[in-house]
Amino acid sequence: MNSEKKHTAATIFWLIGTTKDLLAPLALASILSCLTRLISLGIYVLAGAGLVKVLDLQGIAALQSLGWGQMAGLIIILGLAKGVLRYLEQYVGHRVAFLSLARLRRRIYAAFEHQAPFSAATRNSGSLLARATSDIDKVEVFFAHTLPPAVSAVAVSVLATWATWTQFGEQPALIVLGAYLLIGVIIPALGVRALRSDATIIAASRSAQNQLLAEAMAGVEVLHGFHAGNKTMQRLRDSTSEAGTAALSTGKITALRAALTQMIMWGTLLALFIVLGTQGQLGALVILSCALVPSFEAVRAVDGFILGLQDSLAGARRLHDTATRKPAVTGPARPEPLPETGELLIQGLGISYGSSSVVQGVDLALHPGEAVALVGGSGSGKSSVASAMVRALEYTGTISFGGVDITAASLEDLRRKVILVSQEALTVRGTVRDNLLLGMEGISDGQLVAVLEELGLATWLAQQKSGLDTRLGDRGARVSGGQRQRLALARALIREPAVLILDESTSALDAATEQCVLEAVERRRQQGMAVLMISHRLATVGQAQMIVVLYEGVVAERGNASELLAQADSLFSQMAIREVDRILPG
Ligand SMILES: Nc1ncnc2c1ncn2[C@@H]1O[C@H](COP(=O)(O)OP(=O)(O)OP(=O)(O)O)[C@@H](O)[C@H]1O
User: Fold this and answer.
1) Which residue from 20, 184, 285, 493 could staple onto 276, CB 3.0 to 4.6 Å apart?
2) Is 386 buried (19+), middle (13-18) or exposed (0-12) by CB count in 10 A?
3) Rounded to the nearest whole angstrom, what is the distance from the C-alpha of residue 150 to the centroid of ligand 1?
4) Domain CATH code at residue 84
């Protein structure tokens, strides 16, 4: 088996495994589909027998003995039964499909949750989600339109061949069997490889289009500002034209298959006419011709779903890859509880992205009620250290909290006690309250308002007619960058963490507002919260009891502000001089 086939087989087993308890209803849908098709066949055969009776030909003895009333009655009963069974088949089939899709969605979103923490590597997870959502919808074909039609195609063709053999002899049966094999097996196999590759191209280009559109929507101001709209549209057009070429190739193959199917259907009738007509079995010819219409219909469905299946499998393969990819960071099977408070100790911390090592041998201690600042040039590794402290990335060395290695604790426990507030200040679609609580319970509106007031948002909140019920809009579009940062900080403060990491999380604030925010943080520090401040602005970190200066991923200096400023050639002094120079040039 080549690797592509192995991949497809693994995907199918995974799909079935994900939804294994739905296999019983899926089997029921298949049985119902079979029965519906067989009843159709029965109705057409009865209609054919009626025609034979009118034309006074020799047909099937058992049917010819039926009176007109009996025939009409049987057709009505079968018609009603078909209606009921078809309803049930559709109901069960789609129920299975939608339940499977709901389950798949949960699996995929859970996989994203583990694989997309707040690390820089996965900032594009929004468009990943859009892609996964459309892939999941495509998988519906696999459940609703694959197994039941395939089973009924086999059942109908076997039964019709057997009935032809027993009623009309070997030659017509072989002709009918040949037609079923051609229509149900040979034609659907034509061009499958090309169809699969077209489906992969189309799926990939749809996902690229989704991604492009999601990026363009998120950064529409930037694109307009840099007059990059045309370039983006061109990329979109290129991707569309690639998908168009693949769709055209799919169309050609589909058209060829449809033409061949028609030729075989009419050729079969002609062959039967020659065989049965020359034998004078015109009655048999009429009945067989009537029966072949619905049976061909059942077998032709194989061609239809094979086309949909290629597309569906291309989406499913990507979902399988996503769901089975190893999460960047996992919690232990038997987590050890972290104490409510304690020293956060980093020893010999090393961080690499791929083969590039960006942090080496960093030691840092953060005691309860202490504020430590981490400073350094852009790219010196500050955010990477912060990410390691909440296990958003893999690292070497050890980080412990209250004497417990954080890798021994559950991610949930760690991230409840150590909270990272980053510059990006994520907001979700919803109200101010939704954004602050993010599912947290037991916090009153009064507490929320008090924190917002502390962070200088009292006036803004008073201006909002709906107060805490004010909606923030998509990506917090209705609030400023500084307000968004303060909402993100409020979200952290109401959780009363033991350690708060502020990674440039006041960067969008003016000096007065930043001071107000830092005072709120300082009040909590005095009550025992440890604070790690990461900032380029030295004024922000000047109050810290300890300043750690990172240079190219290693600790270059440590001490308090006055100690570091006392050394004229320290990196910190140079940073301070540059900051003053910016204010007082020359
Ligand atoms: N996801 C990533 N993949 C690859 N390299 C990364 C990734 N994130 C960061 N880096 C690299 O790691 C180094 C340290 O980045 P980091 O964001 O930790 O620095 P920083 O000191 O916080 O920078 P800044 O002050 O600009 O935010 C940089 O060289 C950066 O390019």
Assistant:
1) 285
2) buried
3) 53
4) 1.20.1560.10
